[in-house]
């Protein structure tokens, strides 16, 4: 089995997503596709899986040109996808989830033959070391196991090529190691693997060959053994990159944020944060590490006045915070929410309107009920310059900016006023390296100016790069707080998995 | 990716244009030709500036939707003629020609019914006879008369849509507004214009109150406004009917459900002092409301909150806006406008309250809000169009025997095409930049 994509070109309105991209992967080989967000990785894989038709170029499987009109045809040709966001039915058990869409049936009425299906799943999981209970319900399974179910789904459909899209994004370092063992086993058994990622170290560890994409074009293909992470970073970004954040030691001041015995429930009424104590001082960055879904979202919402406290106390400079985000913001708390377009920005509003999204009701933007778009426009023009927001104009729809510039709009809005505490959730998720550098620099500047900073991130690299102290959340609790000097990948990784 | 239409599309346009030109020449519709040419010139003029281009781009979808609806309407008119099939086999070409002619005549009568007959107008003006002038301008006046409540209800629904709530209850809010306005107009004798102002205020209050109920229900309990407003429509209808059977509204001993007439001092004055012209000051009120709506949405902090909540309620909440308050306020303002429509109808058009106060103005409002892209100016234009359909339909039915129901069918088609921009895009191979007009999401997608 050999899969080739030759000269694939795909144009979207205003964007050349893929520009004559050619890649090749052989039986038993692990090819990594490396590139920043927006480099064209996902478009390329959507073409391979039959979701998009290329404008130019061809897909060649074993020297035969193939055209995939829909995902079913790609699956039939032996191409299996494991998406970043899992495509599973929470209330199904593993057997049903795996067989969904290609069920084993018998008899003229098409009765489900679960026994045969289950037997095949057991056989597949033991063959490839995918430890999964075929009778467990999906919603009871941890994320790492759910991912194995996705892989099983692909194998069950006789995939010769397995595409994994950012598979480690939701895993702890230890779970990632297990995943890598599985991937190597699959490759050894003859599957061709395409591993999509933007993480340099991961790609170096797992891949045989690495193809780097930038702005829709292939920059080059290198053997993993013959390259280094800084060389890859340069290929990916197009210039030399500083992989660490420059900063001096923290000068710790008085306590700004103080959390004592905090308990918070999630939307379903389950306890999401329990008995949590944490302090953040002026002039320091506390970084909260943890795998997604361990109560970080609820913690941040509680601090910023968006979620009712169940028990315990949260104070900012000694003042208890009210259940009212506007009031909390008035106390000098800046909030960079975890999902830009979902929580932080109004798509359909202009850059200027988003810039005043939380201050539109104040002087000078309005007086009484009257809103003054011209005053807003003037302020937004200044902010666009000060924060280097790349936008055609301040009346551009914020939804049409790049992710980095969208985040800059939020940063400009939140840092544009006097703040005592910054709560930043996933501040650089999905951003390009240049924007990450910029946002990190702005955050460190705030710290040096004596602001207390709480960062919540699932990116271990970010946590280690920024945190003066690193707190690890697991199951709604803080399972450990380490000073930066003692926080190694291994120690933090173990804590993220709940091992104290 | 080119901005120009493809060759095949150009050919389609050319053929269509040719057919249209032939039809027009045959029917001696030189005026239509002139209007057509002016329209093209006007469009060409707007294309010179960025803002103008944005404006005509926004017009693409509604105009093409309208065109498609009338095309399909014409086909249905031909196919629904039972004699068409038997004649077709005997004389295919002649029958097709006759049927085609029938559609053209029907649409021509529709236009005449809505805007008047130009020769008739010119002779009337030349004669200088006030009576004749009144009769000649009557179609236009009737169109504007129907436009008036449609602008108001359309604005109300548009405000709700923009703010993320589906107000389907304009019909009921209009009726409660009419009841409130009628009661004050009948029973509170005040000199002009105070009686009028008070009666209008009562109508606004009634509509606002009726929309406040679903608003507060949604904010406090999460009850979906589509369900509650529809239910409240039925309740409003029954309240109005019940009150029309009591001395609260009608003379004692009366056997018809028709109220006392509105006091003279509380009536909306006529706009033109010519016989037969019923258009009244409500039209001016409606246009002022459109300007006011534009001001509210784009020049006030409340409008900012409404628009933010309509586009992304979650981000609005994160920015400290109160979702519940926005919902209640947006609903109330929306209902106030529908209530104003009710008051205007009762105080200006009818001058009494009867069960036929609204021939579906609150339902057309939904279509108008969508066709007008939920923008105040768009709503005014769309309301005028629907008003013209309503007024012209009468003339068409009288002159040609084509059932007036055809127009209900056409307005439904307009909305279908507006709601399915992709269909229009594929049919005409044009780029339509903005998607369907903004409406609230009915189903929240789980994250």
Describe this structure in words.
The complex is a heterodimer of chains A (about 500) and B (about 450). The two termini of chain A are about 45 Å apart. In chain A, about 30% of the residues lie in helices and about 25% in strands. Chain A folds into 2 domains: about 1-235, Rossmann fold, CATH 3.40.50.300; about 255-495, P-loop containing nucleotide triphosphate hydrolases (Rossmann fold), CATH 3.40.50.300. The model of chain A has no long low-confidence stretch (mean pLDDT about 90). In chain A, helix 14 runs parallel beside helix 15. The longest helix of chain A has 16 residues, at about 175-190. With about 500 residues, chain A is of the alpha/beta class. Chain B is mainly α and about 450 residues long. Chain B has 2 domains: about 5-125, no CATH class; about 140-415, ABC transporter involved in vitamin B12 uptake, BtuC, CATH 1.10.3470. Helix content of chain B is about 75%, strand content about 0%. Chain B starts with 6 loop residues before the first helix and ends in a 19-residue tail after the last helix. The relative contact order of chain B is 0.16. Residues about 1-5 and about 440-445 of chain B have low confidence and may be disordered. The interface of A and B includes residues 306, 326, 329, 345 and 366 of A.
Structural class of chain B: mainly alpha
Described by the principal axes of the CA atoms, the overall outline of chain B is globular
CATH class of the largest domain in chain B: Mainly Alpha
- CATH fold descriptor of the largest domain in chain B: ABC transporter involved in vitamin B12 uptake, BtuC
Shape of chain A: globular
Q: What is the architecture of the largest domain in chain B at the second tier of CATH?
A: Orthogonal Bundle
Strand and helix map with partners:
The complex is a heterodimer of chains A (500) and B (447).
Chain A: E1 2-12, E2 15-26, E3 30-34, H1 41-48, E4 56-61, E5 64-66, H2 71-76, E6 79-82, H3 94-99, E7 105-106, E8 111-112, H4 114-127, H5 143-156, E9 161-165, H6 173-188, E10 192-197, H7 200-206, E11 209-214, E12 217-223, H8 229-237, E13 255-265, E14 271-281, E15 285-289, H9 296-303, E16 311-316, E17 319-320, H10 325-330, E18 333-336, H11 340-344, H12 351-355, E19 366-367, E20 370-371, H13 373-386, H14 403-415, E21 421-425, H15 433-448, E22 452-457, H16 460-466, E23 469-474, E24 477-483, H17 489-496
Parallel strand pairs in A: 3-10, 3-11, 6-9, 9-10, 15-22, 15-23, 18-21, 21-22
Antiparallel strand pairs in A: 1-2, 1-4, 4-5, 7-8, 11-12, 13-14, 13-16, 16-17, 19-20, 23-24
Chain B: H1 7-26, H2 30-46, H3 50-79, H4 82-90, H5 92-115, H6 118-127, H7 130-162, H8 170-187, H9 194-221, H10 225-244, H11 282-299, H12 301-311, H13 313-318, H14 323-350, H15 361-371, H16 376-400, H17 405-419, H18 421-428
Helix pairs in contact in B: 3-5, 3-17, 3-18, 4-5, 5-7, 5-16, 6-7, 7-11, 7-12, 7-14, 7-15, 7-16, 8-9, 8-10, 8-14, 8-15, 9-10, 9-14, 11-12, 11-16, 12-14, 15-16
